[in-house]
Design brief:
The complex is a heterodimer of chains A (about 200) and B (about 450). Chain A is α+β, with helices and mostly antiparallel strands and about 200 residues long. Chain A has a domain of about 110 residues: 60s Ribosomal Protein L30, Chain: A (2-Layer Sandwich), CATH 3.30.1330. Chain A has 6 helices and 4 strands, in the order ααβααβαβαβ. Chain B has about 450 residues and is of the alpha+beta class. Chain B is built from 7 helices and 29 strands. In chain B, the strands form 7 sheets. Chain B has a 5-stranded mixed beta sheet. In chain B, α1 packs across α2, α1 runs parallel beside α3 and α4 packs across α6. Classes of the chains: A alpha+beta (about 200), B alpha+beta (about 450). The interface between A and B is medium-sized, with 22 and 41 residues.
């Protein structure tokens, strides 16, 4: 995908230049009346040299493309890892227990937590806007704590996880409808430290 | 509520009008207002039971006269115990001798408030139209600089005192309300004036009043936990009461004697109520929620019990516990399988009622009261979603948040008549707490003052 998009404009540009050059020369230059051996040889050598240079350039370009694709893939794997680490989990109304879907999301964080012993995260609990603002702060705390408890039960050191509640104060979705409510009943993850040189787990 | 004759009769023996209000029944033999005069206890005037007496506030001469009259009229109106008559004061000229009581009675006035600006204050005379006499006189001190918060508070105190002379129950205009807008604690006068910030930094929630009317507590939340703070309204310095750390410390409330602070503390096993002194520390556990949430405490006026919100039954309900943690009981009844939601209790200053919010099918949340004597529940609101009630010192008015005008604002509800007025405007407001009386002009000293000031 990346290779195609990078090379394609260059190729189109070359074709366009050549095309323009040909059209301009036609009316002015007459065909050579006699064969000049020397000039033919020189032209031949020049063409060979051009082909050689082109093939070097092509090889260099291919190598650069390969490297950048590799870098992109590595970056993508890191981004995916970071996304898995910080993926939010969602809760049912007025509940703080971890759903099966939430468990799967949390399980995906476990290999990364064990591959990066220095990694510390903060779990923030959130609620939808319904009900008591104060009770929602407590409910958010309970959601964050339940999330931490699950991770600790799976072997993550408790000291690596901080919990905080924001109650209904920091909604992810602004609306007053069921879809917004369900996006807001969540626990979010933030990397506190050890996220700079994230190690990917061995496959 | 309007005071009936039988209620006045009891007032003489009990001398506490608030007690009378719920103990007295119409079956008590009717006592006439003449009796009140003879007993020398009640200075109220006579009017029909269950009606709001008509009150005429006469124009006041002088530069501040119009403002004072407008404030007093509005306060009496907001008090919901009297009907402020719109007529001008031409029927009263000057001095009690020339008051045309017959004409005043004809226009429906039961009382006339006649005020004169004097050096350093305001002299107020209350006429009892039915009795054709001067019922009360008193000179009030007003601050020199007009239209300042202190000056307005002093004028509100005049209105509260006059309301007490007329109805036997002091008004609550000389009070203020703490609330939260844009995560800052703000304060507003009971009539919606002088709306101004108290905190300017941090994200604040749940402000509450110390019974002294000067100190407040609230919680501040951040990325490293939520802490309970106290501060004096006259000082910019806040003091942290709870220990720093990634814990949740929310919904502070002061005990009625002002010595104790009860708040909700949560770490990783739910949240429970704790009691501490004002010097701080984690304090003593009050509730044992076993991993559930226990928040929003509110003291009974005698300081012995605490109402609070708990999720111990699986969803939020209002409970009451003794302050030592014993005798916890469910207050708001629910049917088995009922998943609705009741929270934010506020114990009325007379001890009779607890206001709370309840989820109502198809109506969001609504404000209700539960009578502690017979556990009868009354729904007071239905327009928009209405939440987080806080009692006025008169145990009659509630300030609450409502979405009736789309944006969440504070409204004042009269629980007797159902009348509602909007208190705040602008951005969304919430977390209201009504102050105790902020001016303590005792009725006893008023009587003395009236005698001293009385002139033939």
């Amino acid at each position: 995908m990346i290779r195609i998009t990078r090379v394609a404009p260059l190729a189109f540009g070359l074709v366009a230049l050549l095309g323009v050059g040909c059209r301009r020369q036609k009316p002015e230059t007459q065909p050579a009346p006699a064969i000049d051996a020397d000039s033919a040889a020189r032209a031949d050598a020049a063409a060979r040299e051009r082909a050689r240079q082109d093939s070097i350039a092509n090889a260099q370009r291919a190598e650069a493309d390969r490297l950048s694709a590799e870098r992109a893939a590595a970056e993508q794997r890191l981004a995916d890892a970071r996304a898995a680490l910080t993926a939010a989990i969602y809760f049912d109304y007025d509940r703080a227990d971890i759903t099966d879907e939430g468990k799967a999301t949390l399980d995906a964080k476990l290999p990364l937590m064990s591959a990066n012993a220095g990694l510390r995260v903060r779990v923030s609990g959130h609620t939808d806007a319904r009900g008591s603002d104060e009770y929602n702060l407590a409910l958010g705390q309970r959601r964050a704590a339940a999330t931490k408890r699950y991770l600790v039960l799976q072997g993550v050191d408790a000291n690596r996880i901080e919990v905080i509640s924001y109650g209904e104060e920091r909604p992810a979705a602004a609306g007053d409808d069921d879809s917004s409510y369900s996006q807001n009943r969540r626990a979010e993850f933030e990397i506190l430290s050890g996220g700079e040189n994230l190690q990917l787990p061995q496959q | 509520m309007s005071f009936s004759s039988p209620r006045r009769g009891l007032a003489m023996t009990l001398t506490a009008a608030s007690l009378v209000a719920f103990l007295a029944r119409p079956s008590v033999a009717a006592a006439q207002d003449t009796t009140s005069r003879n007993e020398g206890v009640s200075l109220r005037l006579g009017y029909d039971p269950y009606t709001k007496p008509g009150v005429l506030v006469t124009p006041i001469g002088g530069a501040a006269g119009d403002s004072i009259r407008a404030i007093v009229q509005r306060d009496l109106d907001f008090g919901d115990r009297v009907t402020v008559l719109p007529a001008g004061g031409e029927v009263v000229t000057s001095g009690a001798a020339r008051v045309n009581y017959a004409l005043l009675a004809k226009i429906g006035a039961a009382a006339v408030v006649q005020s004169t600006i004097v050096p350093g204050g305001l002299r107020v005379v209350l006429h009892d139209v039915g009795g054709k006499r001067v019922l009360q006189r008193r000179q009030f001190t007003l601050p020199a600089s007009r239209d300042t918060p202190a000056w307005r508070l002093a004028v509100h105190d005049v209105a509260d005192e006059v309301e007490g002379w007329i109805t036997g129950t002091r008004g609550v205009a000389a009070t203020r309300i703490l609330y939260v807008r844009d995560a800052k604690v703000r304060i507003v006068d009971s009539d919606g004036e002088n709306d101004r910030p108290v905190t300017t930094t941090g994200s604040a929630l749940s402000p509450t009043w110390h019974p002294n009317g000067r100190t407040i507590a609230y919680s501040v939340f951040g990325d490293r936990g939520t802490q309970v703070m106290t501060r004096d309204l006259n000082s910019p310095t806040a003091r942290r009461i709870t220990e720093a750390g990634a814990a949740l410390n929310i919904t502070p409330t002061f005990s009625p004697d002002g010595a104790m602070l009860v708040y909700s503390h949560g770490e990783e096993e739910g949240s429970d109520l704790f009691a501490t002194t004002l010097t701080g520390g984690l304090g003593r556990r009050v509730t044992v929620g076993r991993g559930t949430d226990n928040v929003s405490p509110s003291f009974s006026p005698d300081g012995r019990r605490v109402a609070f919100t708990s999720g111990r039954s699986g969803h939020p309900e209002v409970y009451i516990t003794d302050v030592d943690g014993t005798n916890a009981e469910l207050l708001t009844d629910f049917d088995f399988g009922d998943q609705s939601y009741r929270s934010n209790p506020d114990w009325s200053p007379d001890g009779r009622m607890i206001a709370f919010q309840s989820q109502v099918s198809g109506q969001g949340f609504q404000v209700m009261t539960i009578n502690l004597r017979d556990r009868s529940v009354k729904q007071h609101t239905s327009e928009g979603s209405n939440e987080d009630p806080s009692w006025a010192p008169d145990a009659r008015h509630l300030v609450l948040t409502s979405t009736r005008s789309t944006v969440r604002q504070l409204y004042v509800l009269d629980t007797e008549s159902g009348r509602v007025r909007q208190l705040t405007r602008g951005g969304g407001a919430r977390s209201a707490a009504w102050s105790p009386p902020l001016v303590r002009s005792a009725s006893a000293s008023a009587t003395t003052a009236a005698r001293r000031d009385a002139r033939p």
